[in-house]
Design brief:
Radius of gyration: 22 Å
Helix content: 25-40%
Mean pLDDT: 96
Strand content: 15-25%
Structural class: alpha/beta
Largest sheet: 5 strands, parallel
Bound molecules: S-adenosyl-L-homocysteine
Length: 233
């Protein structure tokens, strides 16, 4: 069973959005587990201090290596990858999400303040993972993003009507446009091809749409796709 262990100073934020809809139902059904563990339980002083001022000066506070190490070491080493949510990390991709979802789960450390003592990252071989090129106030929301993306790929979580095989990124392209009833919305009809019943034509139209969207919106993805498929410009 896929297991997420989250180390945080705000365990009350969990399950939060992971407790509703697809992820929440799967959690309730026992298809995956979530443990949000309080880093503060591993402090030793009466103020339960998890942070201190940065060596060398500068603004903000840094999370202490000794406290974090105790929190990490209290999670049995069972081969699950140990991740640190971090804006300096390798950007999360659907490919990495798929690989994580196929594994046993993850142990996820959530930073706060200015981040964590660099020595902790090295000493516990943490893999830094970013969810995008912007800065959040803490790693919790980032951990939820990662967990949500993984959990929906666990077998049995999505019905086949919501299958993840056809969607954005799965084939290196963004997804084609979707429509549903009513057939006319504010004088905008559903494209004829989608209601004509010719399955091959629908497929061809969707592929062309996906390619156009990707070329226009994500030249980076488009180049990779071109290189892989040999598509001319
Ligand atoms: N001073 C740091 C930012 C700290 S933000 C820097 O400039 O790199 C506080 C915490 O929020 C981080 O330790 C990390 O756990 C989390 N965080 C912020 N932005 C993130 C992002 N884009 N992806 C993943 N985690 C992020």
């Amino acid at each position: 069973m896929w297991r997420a262990t989250v180390l945080t100073i705000f365990p009350g934020m969990f399950p939060g959005p992971l407790g509703v809809s697809l992820a929440g139902k799967a959690l309730g059904a026992g298809l995956w587990t979530l443990d949000a563990l309080d880093i503060r339980a591993h402090t030793t002083d009466k103020h339960r201090t998890v942070d201190d001022t940065p060596a060398g000066g500068g603004p903000g506070m840094v999370m202490k290596a000794d406290v974090l190490a105790r929190a990490i070491d209290a999670v049995p080493a069972d081969g699950r990858p140990r991740l640190l949510m971090s804006p300096r990390g390798v950007p999360l991709t659907q490919e990495r999400v798929t690989a994580l979802a196929r594994g046993e789960g993850a142990v996820i450390l959530c930073g706060r303040f200015e981040g964590v003592d660099e020595r902790l990252i090295a000493a516990r071989s943490l893999e830094e993972v970013s969810i995008g090129d912007y800065v959040l106030s803490g790693g919790e929301v980032a951990a939820m993003v990662l967990i949500d993306a993984c959990v929906r790929l666990i077998p049995g979580v999505m019905g086949k009507e919501q299958s993840g095989t056809d969607e954005s990124y799965s084939g290196g392209l963004l997804e084609y446009p979707q429509y549903t009833r009513p057939s006319m919305f504010e004088e905008r009809p559903i494209p004829d091809v989608l209601t004509g019943g010719d399955h091959a034509k629908v497929e061809a139209w969707r592929r062309a749409q996906a390619e156009n969207l990707t070329r226009e919106r994500r030249p980076d993805l488009w180049r990779t796709y071109q290189n892989r498929t040999g598509k001319p410009k």
